[in-house]
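Re: [ENG-882] Designed sequences occasionally contain unexpected residues at chain ends

Forwarding the minimal case from QA. Structure tokens:
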């Protein structure tokens, strides 16, 4: 072998060793929210390191990425997002990461529109359709020619939707790391069993709430999948439009106060990661209590809900305690 060929062979073998070593390192996964990140850790285990873009105790609707987030996404091997127009901040980040695969965890999940608290809408119980891989809500075929609003992305308030996330995440990890396909599949199956138990546990916890008190008035509309799953009704929302950034006018607030009085609602639900200014004022005017739930985010490790399972348990217990028969 000529000397220069030996050199090339040597260089190639060094490259091969380098590649093998890189595959042994955990996969770098970026999730948009702490909830998606926790679910990804359950599926990836030791084979992944997952970072969340939106910090704990924070509101994804109000999130603005920092320069290190741009770098983190560009360096990732996989980005996981909720989709359905939830992450307004993601488009700019992905522009700098054209080669990084973006997977929408809600792919295959049946999406519903926002009711904006109008539970009497005859179409409120009709799904808009199943979310496609692109995660674009407009691509969801409408059930009929009724004018639907945009998709409600807050699917994680029903753990049965997150059981579908588990399959999607396992498939996404397998696509970039096929050697560990069996581990991802097994982890997803084990976590799905845990989520089924969580769903059953929530049903049991909420069984103390009588039918006539199963009405939720929330800060912004994030509980509609929870409501459908556990036989509640979203009776009103303080901030319209499905995000915490919506604005309400005095007339709407007055209408909601009337509505709350008519229904005999005694509690309205604020959220830990959003301002309570409007909801506190409204509660005072309506003479009802404010109880805080978890909406977009997990808490820090020493908080109430560092994992998604804690999130589910805490919200079910909080709502059961607030609405049970006095
Ligand atoms: Zn939200």
């Amino acid at each position: 072998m000529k000397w220069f060929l030996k050199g090339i062979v040597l260089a190639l073998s060094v490259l091969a060793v380098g590649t093998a070593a890189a595959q042994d390192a955990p996969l770098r996964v970026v999730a948009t929210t702490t909830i998606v990140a926790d679910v990804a850790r359950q599926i990836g285990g030791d084979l992944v390191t997952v970072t969340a873009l939106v910090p704990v105790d924070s509101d994804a609707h109000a999130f603005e990425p920092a320069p290190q987030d741009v770098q983190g996404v560009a360096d990732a091997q996989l980005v996981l997002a909720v989709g359905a127009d939830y992450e307004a901040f993601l488009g700019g980040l992905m522009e700098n990461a054209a080669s990084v695969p973006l997977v929408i965890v809600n792919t295959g999940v049946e999406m519903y529109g926002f009711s904006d608290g109008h539970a009497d809408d005859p179409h409120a119980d009709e799904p808009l359709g199943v979310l496609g891989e692109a995660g674009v809500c407009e691509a969801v075929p409408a059930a009929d020619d009724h004018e639907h609003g945009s998709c409600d992305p807050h699917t994680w308030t029903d753990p049965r939707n997150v059981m579908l996330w588990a399959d999607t995440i396992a498939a996404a990890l397998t696509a970039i790391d096929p050697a560990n396909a069996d581990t991802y599949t097994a982890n997803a199956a084990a976590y799905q069993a845990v989520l089924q138990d969580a769903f059953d546990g929530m049903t049991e916890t909420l069984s103390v709430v009588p039918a006539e008190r199963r009405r939720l008035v929330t800060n912004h509309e994030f509980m509609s999948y929870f409501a459908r799953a556990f036989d509640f009704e979203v009776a009103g929302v303080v901030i319209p439009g499905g995000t915490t950034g919506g604005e309400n006018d005095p007339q709407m607030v007055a209408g909601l106060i009337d509505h709350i009085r008519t229904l005999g609602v005694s509690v309205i639900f604020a959220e830990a990661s959003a301002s309570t200014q409007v909801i506190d004022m409204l509660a005072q005017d309506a003479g009802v209590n404010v109880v805080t739930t978890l909406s977009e985010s997990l808490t820090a490790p020493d908080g109430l809900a560092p994992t998604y399972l804690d999130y589910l348990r805490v919200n079910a217990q909080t709502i059961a305690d607030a609405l049970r028969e006095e």
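QA comment: On inspection the terminal residues look reasonable. Confidence is low (pLDDT under 50) at residues 1-22. Proposing we downgrade this to a documentation issue.
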